[in-house]
Input
Amino acid sequence: MIYAGIAGTGSYLPEKVLTNHDLERMVDTSDAWIRERTGIGKRHIAAEGETTCDLAEAAARSAMAQAHVRGEDIDLIIVATTTPDRVFPSTACLLQERLGNHGCTAFDVQAVCTGFVYAMGIADKFIRSGSHRCALVVGAETLSRIIDWTDRTTCVLFGDGAGAVVLKAQDEPGIIATHLHADGAYKDLLTVPAGISQGYGAMQGKEAFIQMRGNEVFRVAVNTLGQIVDETLQKNGLDQADIDWLVPHQANIRIINATARKLGLSTDHVVQTVEDHGNTSAASIPLALDVAVRDGRIKRGNKLLLEAFGGGFTWGSALITY
Ligand code: UT7
Output
């Protein structure tokens, strides 16, 4: 059997930091409210002219260095993003050119905050089929570009960043399983209700920004993530005790803690970066993974449960032996 294993991780955060105190000067909010309701203390914001592909490239190079992989060794590039540089070509193609790779499979995946988990699921299937042997999977976002900085209900939540993994074909798992879901019936609870086909006109106005019915999203997220934890354990014949690390999408500390409780995991087995990064959508899981790999918490042989929930709604999990 062929499996996909993580050979390297990397991440990148833009230099500029926006603290809760900075936001207090921009909208009617407080550091205390943001911390209590979300767990966020600060977030990084891309500089003017700094694009999603710039962040993706920095994260990718870091993961490739750790995996001892050069651009020409990669035969599959998937970038999960909701904030691509261009309508087309895909950010994956822009990244491929920068990495000096010509000819490999390259495309973007759009599943909002679940994008990285979707991309891992797709890359896993490519590698298991035997058609590809070395995949670069990136989650990268410049969400600051689709935020209404006068809307306190959303602007305090999000940040920019990128994370990446290199996956290589190997004889043992690796990625054990991924479970991917969506339900478009929830399309209006979390959305940027503008786009190419609806017309560029709408993108000049307020509608081009993230709109969220936060409280409703919160309730569905907690329930759905509880279910995906059950589904992942059950379908793979595992107990709660088999999971060493929960690496969750970083939207809200209260959602993360609810999922950890569902797993019976104490907080010291949960990778939490929401305090420093905010919600970076598709970038949040690979960012968190890289932080915990590099600081030595996640070790070879550990069993990881990655899970995410986001616009669509989309949700999913990846069960991985690191
Ligand atoms: O990543 C994709 C998935 N996204 C999520 O999972 C996000 C899910 N939602 C959430 O994380 C939470 O719902 C929020 C953090 C967005 C909001 O927290 P909440 O506890 O659900 O607050 P709420 O929306 O019920 O608002 C409570 C109050 C309201 O005031 P009133 O109506 O009670 O007077 C809001 O106007 O808090 C007010 N409020 C704020 N106050 C200070 C909303 N935003 C702010 C703010 N600062 N930034």
